[in-house]
Amino acid sequence: MEWLPPYSPDLNPIEHKWAGVKAIGEKRCSVDELFMEHVECVKLY
Question: Which end of the chain has fewer surrounding CB within 10 Å, N or C?
């Protein structure tokens, strides 16, 4: 077996993006606002 480091979400950049997506989803906004937030997130990549 190969040793793997313990899971560390703070070091994984995608976890920070998912946290942002979850925060957006928790805001009660319209579908149009959610879509525009998604577009802005995609532009960052």
Answer: N
